[in-house]
């Protein structure tokens, strides 16, 4: 019997895509025992925006959350999403920081590390991969991930070449990450058949979003074309900007004669558990029902749904919504000038903001953001296609582009020393120090609050005695 396995995303990507990652651990702790027995390939539950959200909004220690997940999901593979050299932040970290972060992630309970780079510059995956191998347990899997996009340079051949490279580097599985949900059934068929022919012995994963309405068609074609694993979300947290529904795929699989290993009773129970959770966040406004709808505009402009809503918010703030169509039409120009970067964090924001600026100023590249300048200098890595010569001359002048890897490789431990000095007695573990290196302001606030809370509790206990 043919096998296709499922990764459940409700705790991470569905949570992130539908409700800005605001689901606290307490809200789903009660269903973890059942999730542990549901038969998923893996449970995506950490990384992405969860780390930032824990510290910034939820007053949770992300490492403690991970340890709790590990404790309550003893039989499951816990999966995280990592932005290569950017870890879970927005800048390149030194290699020693990346290595320590991976060591701690595995130590605290992560099994599968899905690693991607926004530009598919795989040099930015090397450190994370070698650290994963170095600290691997028998359950650890390093998954190499490709940011999927469409452009004249992103051909099937190019993607096959990328898969060969990921395999050569030593990744154990490969994931196609279609963050905008713009991969069509036709493209999925040609891409997956091509990849399977070229590197067939390595498990292939498809990660897509329902944003444009194509995901179910695309997944169906992907299954017919030989995909091994797909990402789905429990049905009440599926659809819209999230993933396709777990139970729906299970139902379709049965008729296909595909074994996905899921326990039907358990997956229904899991969905029943999350229904009131979802309702609570619809009622308090944190889950906007708009994000559950289909957005075909994202398909026309080939941009992720989140990027469109960002642009609308910015233009509304500036009372310039009349320029929306012009800004949308400017996106393909900016993308071409910048060498067709995939529109994923942080590039999606950078390209969107530059397009808006070009239109509002009325002259292209009269103002260039600091981030776009750094990108053109080479600080993020190598662009998929050459950057416009005119733009390069404007930003670089007589200077040569930089090699992002030279900075990354500085191994002085200086980040750890600086973090230790800044935190003093607030830091009690390597995990605290790592949180501070990644998100200094939020971590400082969080650790001060933790200390205050404990002092208050201590006084209370003494009085009671
Ligand atoms: Co996603």
What can you tell me about this protein's structure?
An eight-stranded parallel barrel has the order 1-2-3-4-5-6-7-8, surrounded by five helices. The chain has 21 helices and eight strands. With 465 residues, it is an alpha/beta fold. Helix 7 (156-169) packs across helix 8 and helix 20 (430-438) crosses helix 21.
What is the number of beta strands?
A: 8
Report the biggest beta sheet as strand number plus sense, adding barrel if it closes: 8 strands, parallel, barrel
Radius of gyration over all CA atoms, rounded: 22 Å
N- to C-terminal separation? 64 Å
Q: Give me the secondary-structure category.
A: alpha/beta
Furnish the topology, listing elements before pairings:
Layout: E1 5-8, H1 10-19, H2 32-35, E2 42-47, H3 50-58, H4 62-72, E3 78-82, H5 95-108, E4 112-115, H6 123-134, E5 141-147, H7 156-169, E6 173-178, H8 185-199, E7 204-208, H9 215-224, E8 229-232, H10 246-256, H11 264-283, H12 297-301, H13 305-317, H14 324-337, H15 347-361, H16 370-377, H17 389-396, H18 404-408, H19 414-423, H20 430-438, H21 440-464
Parallel strand pairs: 1-2, 1-8, 2-3, 3-4, 4-5, 5-6, 6-7, 7-8
Helix pairs in contact: 5-6, 5-20, 7-8, 8-9, 13-15, 14-15, 19-20, 20-21
Quick structural gist:
By secondary structure, the protein is of the alpha/beta class. It has helices spanning 10-19, 32-35, 50-58, 62-72, 95-108, 123-134, 156-169, 185-199, 215-224, 246-256, 264-283, 297-301, 305-317, 324-337, 347-361, 370-377, 389-396, 404-408, 414-423, 430-438, 440-464, and strands at residues 5-8, 42-47, 78-82, 112-115, 141-147, 173-178, 204-208, 229-232.
């Amino acid at each position: 019997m043919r096998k296709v396995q499922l990764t459940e995303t409700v705790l991470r990507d569905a949570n992130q895509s539908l409700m800005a990652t605001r689901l606290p651990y307490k809200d789903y702790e009660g269903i973890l025992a059942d999730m542990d027995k549901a038969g998923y390939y893996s449970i995506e539950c950490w990384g992405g925006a969860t780390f930032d959200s824990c510290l910034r909004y939820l007053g949770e220690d992300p490492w403690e959350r991970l340890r709790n997940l590990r404790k309550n999901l003893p039989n499951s593979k816990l999966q995280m999403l990592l932005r290569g050299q950017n870890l879970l932040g927005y800048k390149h970290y030194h290699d020693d920081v990346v290595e320590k972060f991976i060591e701690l992630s595995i130590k605290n309970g992560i099994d599968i590390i899905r690693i991607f780079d926004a530009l598919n510059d795989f040099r930015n995956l090397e450190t994370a991969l070698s650290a994963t191998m170095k600290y691997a347990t028998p359950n650890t899997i390093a998954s190499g991930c490709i940011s999927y996009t469409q452009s004249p340079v992103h051909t099937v051949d190019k993607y096959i070449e990328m898969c060969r490279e990921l395999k050569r580097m030593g990744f154990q599985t490969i994931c196609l990450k279609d963050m905008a949900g713009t991969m069509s059934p036709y493209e999925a068929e040609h891409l997956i058949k091509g990849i399977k022919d070229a590197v067939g012995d390595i498990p292939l994963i498809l990660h897509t979003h329902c944003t444009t309405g194509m995901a179910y068609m695309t997944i169906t074609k992907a299954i017919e074309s030989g995909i091994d694993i797909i990402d789905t979300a429990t049905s009440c947290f599926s659809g819209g900007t999230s993933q396709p529904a777990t139970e729906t795929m299970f139902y379709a699989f049965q008729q296909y004669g595909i074994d996905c290993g899921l326990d039907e009773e358990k997956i229904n129970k899991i969905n029943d558990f999350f229904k009131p959770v979802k309702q609570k966040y619809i009622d308090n406004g944190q889950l906007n029902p708009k994000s559950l709808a289909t957005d075909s505009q994202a398909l026309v402009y080939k941009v992720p749904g989140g990027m469109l809503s960002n642009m609308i918010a910015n233009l509304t703030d500036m009372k310039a919504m009349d320029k929306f169509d012009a800004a949308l039409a400017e996106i393909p120009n900016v993308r071409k000038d910048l060498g067709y970067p995939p529109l994923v964090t942080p590039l999606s924001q950078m390209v969107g903001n530059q397009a808006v600026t070009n239109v509002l100023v009325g002259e292209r590249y009269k103002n260039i953001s600091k981030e776009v300048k750094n990108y053109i200098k080479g600080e993020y890595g190598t662009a998929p296609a050459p950057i416009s010569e005119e733009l390069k001359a404007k930003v670089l002048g007589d200077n040569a582009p930089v090699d992002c890897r030279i900075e990354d490789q500085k191994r002085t431990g200086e980040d750890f020393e600086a973090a230790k000095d800044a935190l003093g007695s607030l830091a009690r573990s390597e995990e605290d120090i790592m949180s501070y290196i990644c998100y200094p302001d939020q971590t400082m606030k969080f650790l001060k609050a933790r200390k205050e809370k404990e002092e208050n509790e201590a006084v209370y206990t003494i009085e009671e005695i």
